[in-house]
TrEMBL record:
Residues 129-143 have a biased composition (Low complexity). Its EC number is 2.1.1.312. This is 25S rRNA (Uracil(2843)-N(3))-methyltransferase. Pfam families: Methyltransf_34 (PF11312). The keyword Transcription regulation does not apply. One of its GO terms (biological process) is methylation. InterPro entries: Methyltransf_34. Residues 1-29, 125-167 are annotated as: Disordered. It is an enzyme of class 2 (transferase). Keywords: Methyltransferase, Transferase. GO terms for molecular function: methyltransferase activity.
């Protein structure tokens, strides 16, 4: 990263055939600079977390092995080893994390509308949260059950701290991500950092991402490493340089195949089985849905989407991001007729009658370029990326 001998400046890639809308840049140079600094901090999370991985001589070989497994659609091999997961996260997740953060920024008004205000202890910022929660308890934890109450602290002069016993209101957003882990984790932390909200994140993936997710959580909630020669002023400034604090972002990881989840397990993950009225949340399928259609089959994927609709609280959002155009097609029937992923998705959500709920399409982009700005540093070269994005809201009749 900046000032490190191992870092190299990213070489911008300008893909040919520049079709599709581009993510709009801020018109304000000061805002551009602020955003670029924030994006660099996100890249630093990856380069610091995976410094040893990025420095390995064997990294190019491992990346080629992962690419070969992905090409052969052998996901058990591609994501079956810890060193493969770390190499994948170090190589491909940084750009996606910045891209997803840009998507969250673009739909920020919709996300803000889901954030629920709740009282927390004034001292809650000092509470160390665990980096991982038991999957079965994820829904309860995500809804704030077990939140610590006010604590008194010693101010050093024998008197209670002015904040002791006080409570304040904080906004908290719940997110449930199916497929992928590292990029979603960092992008969600970015959203919380930029909005000042708190969040509860549940990551669901069939691969064993738990160790990598815990590593990223520590990196996101800890100040970046400093040289032992850093000045006192630099150390003081660095103390608050983490992306989020531990109480601001709580996460749980659940290793499971999304298509094998039953209704009760899905309801548990979205918090539909907790006491009282469950709060709406945002569910994401980031570069995941087309894989489900292609490898799990259209029937199983349609069943999963319908079960999701049955258990999601009213007002919840479904965010789908995937490769654009012909890169996202699924074959149907013996003749293997191909259908676009978006058509299949809209047919299930919007074109099929359902009992007890309806879906509304509120945002849709067929093709968008995310381009990395000049001036960002990362130890290896990163590329721009193109994606399609679709956002839906679920409605339920008032009880």
């Amino acid at each position: 990263m900046g000032g490190r001998s191992t870092a190299s400046k990213r070489k911008p890639v300008a893909p040919a055939g520049d079709t599709g809308r581009q993510v709009a840049a801020a018109d304000n140079p000061e805002a551009d600079n602020k955003l670029r600094k924030h994006q660099q901090r996100l890249l630093n999370v990856f380069s610091d977390a995976f410094a040893a991985v990025l420095a390995r001589d064997s990294l190019p070989t491992i990346l080629q092995e992962i690419k070969r497994a992905l090409y052969n659609r052998d996901f058990a091999v591609a994501f079956g080893r810890q060193d493969y997961l770390e190499a994948y996260a170090a190589r491909w997740s940084p750009t996606r994390a910045l891209c997803y953060a840009a998507v969250f920024r673009a739909i920020g008004d919709h996300l803000d509308a889901l954030a629920v205000e709740a009282e927390v202890a004034a001292s809650d910022d000092d509470v160390e949260a665990t980096s991982s929660l038991p999957p079965r308890g994820a829904a309860a934890a995500a809804d704030g059950e077990g939140e610590e109450g006010p604590r008194s602290s010693d101010s050093g002069d024998g008197e209670a701290s002015p904040s002791a016993g006080r409570r304040r209101r904080r906004r908290r957003l719940r997110m449930l991500c199916f497929g992928g882990c590292a990029a979603e984790h960092v992008a969600f932390a970015s959203h919380l950092c930029e909005t000042g909200s708190r969040g509860d994140l549940t990551l669901v993936d069939s691969a064993p991402w738990s160790e990598t997710a815990s590593l990223l959580q520590r990196q996101l909630t800890s100040p970046p490493p400093l040289s032992k020669y850093a000045s006192a002023a630099a150390r003081a400034a660095n103390a608050a340089a983490n992306i989020v604090d531990a109480a601001q972002l709580r996460f749980a990881f659940c290793q499971a195949d999304a298509l094998s989840l039953g209704r009760d397990r899905l309801a548990d993950l979205v918090g539909a089985q907790r006491r009282g009225n469950p709060t709406p949340l945002v569910v994401t399928l980031m570069f995941t849905l087309n894989e489900l259609y292609t490898d799990g089959g259209i029937g199983k994927t349609t069943r999963f989407l319908r079960l999701l609709g049955e258990v999601l609280p009213g007002g919840s959002l479904l965010l789908v991001v995937d490769s654009p155009g012909s890169y996202s097609e699924a074959a149907v029937g013996k003749e293997k007729k191909k259908y676009p992923m978006q058509w299949l998705l809209n047919h299930t959500l919007l074109g099929t009658e359902t009992a007890g709920y309806t879906w509304e399409s509120i945002e849709s982009e067929d093709s968008v370029w995310f381009r990395l700005p000049d001036g960002l540093d990362y130890p290896i070269q990163l590329e721009n990326m193109r994606y399609q994005m679709h956002l839906y809201r679920i409605h339920r009749p008032e009880s």
